UniProtKB/TrEMBL annotation:
Keywords: Bacterial microcompartment. One of its GO terms (cellular component) is bacterial microcompartment. It is found in: Bacterial microcompartment. The keyword Oxidoreductase does not apply. This is Ethanolamine utilization protein EutN. Pfam families: EutN_CcmL (PF03319). The keyword Cytoplasm does not apply. InterPro entries: EutN_CcmL, EutN_CcmL_sf. It comes from the Bacteria.
Length: 85
């Protein structure tokens, strides 16, 4: 899983049948220092109702329909990160 921040959204007028009705969000990975990692921005299917500025957990290959294809999906909204160091 990837810890990330929602940094935008994607508008797509034509989607595959499996993605119809799904929101597509831009997410940028967060490093150990909890800062955004440059050049690590992805598009993910929002399955939890996340919004811009939310910290989220993203599953890199969460299967929507395993027999057809896999898509990156937001699977949780993160409230707090505790780092023991």
């Amino acid at each position: 899983m990837i810890l990330a921040k929602v940094t935008g959204h994607v508008e797509a007028t034509q989607k595959s049948d499996e993605l119809r009705g799904c929101n597509l969000l831009l997410v940028t990975a967060i490093g150990d220092d909890q800062e955004l990692i440059k050049d690590r921005t992805y598009v993910a299917v929002d399955s939890v109702g996340a919004g811009r500025g939310d910290f989220v957990l993203v599953e890199e290959y969460f299967a929507l329909h395993k027999e057809r294809y896999k898509a990156m999906s937001i699977v949780a909204i993160v409230e707090k990160v505790h780092k023991d160091c």
